[in-house]
Design brief:
The protein is of the alpha+beta class and about 90 residues long. It has 1 helix and 3 strands. It has a 3-stranded antiparallel beta sheet.
C-alpha cells in the first residue's frame, strides 16, 4: 500500500433517507430523517431500525416508515484531532 493510498474495505455503509409519520395525542408528526447502517442490511431490518429511532425521537408508540432513497456511503478518516485520544472506545 502506497503512502497516500486509503484502505477502503470495511468503511462501506448504506445511508437511507426515509419519511416517518408518528402519531401522538396532538396529531401526526411527519419528518424526513436519515439513517446510516451496515452495508447490505435487509430493507426490513432498516425499516425496523428507522422505526425504533423515530419512536425514540418522537416519544410516540406508533410510527410508520416509508423508505425514500438509498445511498452507498464510503467513509475514510481525513484528519484526527488530539482530543480523540481521550475517548475510551472499549470497556
Amino acid at each position: 500500500m502506497e503512502k497516500n493510498e486509503v484502505k477502503l474495505e470495511g468503511n462501506e455503509m448504506d445511508f437511507y433517507m426515509y419519511e416517518s409519520i408518528c402519531t401522538s395525542w396532538f396529531g401526526n408528526r411527519k419528518d424526513i430523517r436519515h439513517i446510516i447502517i451496515p452495508k447490505d442490511m435487509s430493507e426490513d431490518e432498516v425499516i425496523k431500525k428507522a422505526e425504533i429511532s423515530s419512536k425514540n425521537i418522537s416519544g410516540s408508540a406508533n410510527c410508520n416508515i416509508n423508505l425514500l432513497q438509498k445511498y452507498y456511503m464510503l467513509i475514510y478518516p481525513k484528519k484526527s484531532y488530539s482530543s480523540l485520544t481521550r475517548i475510551k472506545f472499549h470497556k
